[in-house]
User: Fold this.
Amino acid sequence: MTRILPQAHQFGFATRAVHAGQVAEPLSGAVMTPIYQTSTYVQEGLGKHRGYEYARTQNPTREVLERNVASLEGGTHGFAFGSGLAALDAVLKLFKTGDHLVCGENVYGGSHRLMERIYGNLGLQVTFVDMREVSNIERALTPTTRMIYCETPTNPMMNLTDLAAVGDLAQAHGYLYVVDNTFATPYFQRPLEHGADIVLHSTTKYLNGHSDMVGGLLITSRDDVAERLAFIQNAAGAVPGPMDCWLALRGIKTLPLRMRQHDASGRRIAEWLTRQPGVSKVYYPGLPSHPQHEIACRQMTGFGGMISLDLGDAARARRFVESTRIFVLAESLGGVESLIGHPASMTHASVPPAMRQAMGLTDSLIRLSCGVEDTEDLIADLDQALKT
Ligand SMILES: *Cc1c(COP(=O)(O)O)cnc(C)c1O
Assistant:
């Protein structure tokens, strides 16, 4: 009768994507989780309520989303936020002035900006390192280091971090280990299994998958971390509205189906791009020529639909991104529709130019988010744009 599958690990991923965390709706028996569009809840007497007092603190729609994604990541606690960056903001509130963090140099531009320009001003010290080599992290450690923060694959250079190796390092020193899993999603990669303490998501991308909301999530299996995140979520209040939680929940039901198609197209398009004369570089972890392909095969079960390519010439790159007909020129990624972007002037414009150059993020680099359209149509679209 009741349909509660909070941590139903005995079920497969796709079953949990549809059902995990859902509860029977008592009034009508609605099969789908309602949008509890309310700010407050009735109290039957002073201090007598059903566990819901005020919607910043608790909302049933939000709770179902939090339990659902916690299950998919193999964690026990989920916390939803108004955006991916609001989720990161909550993580950074775990620290205090003087604490030192080691962060991947190639993380999402907004994550870099938040750490450097807001928390840097508040006295957090952040060292950005190339996390392709664990030794680079080791060299950056100081007596005040408290967290290692990584994103793999990175955006847009598709660099990988050996999740288990960093997990061992973090555990040996007691650092909090946080992984942004937005690109791979739990369908292809589960950082908690490699020692991560917190997994971060921009729900905006693959989890919701339909480019119609903005949201973020944190997942952990540590009760002590969960207690502090619950406090921050309520005390700082960067929570999502129930409508956005409901959209994300609906999107996640088809996550496995969508990821399989993103992956199938991603593999074919990446391979096709390597054979095009005007393309000087293709960055995709699923290509055997990717320098870290072996790590990708070890910690990911698929490579997804994100591909970066370099045309070697900024003017050609500009013409290319303005000539596609199916690939829409827009920021963001992970939706059912294919998107094309120019990281240097769009998503990564806030990264200092010297740092962009150092990491290979040139003015001729282009990023593709392959959607779920017919692969043949996507290839034909790229083909005609390359010939423009
Ligand atoms: C988009 C994105 C974020 C930020 O999420 P928002 O929902 O836009 O705040 C963080 N990390 C990665 C990898 C992203 O792609």
Q: What stands out?
A: The chain has two domains: 13-252, 255-387. Residues 83-85, 108, 110-111, 151, 155, 180, 182-183, 202, 204-205, 214, 216 surround pyridoxal-5'-phosphate (CB under 6 Å). The first helix runs from residue 13 to 19.
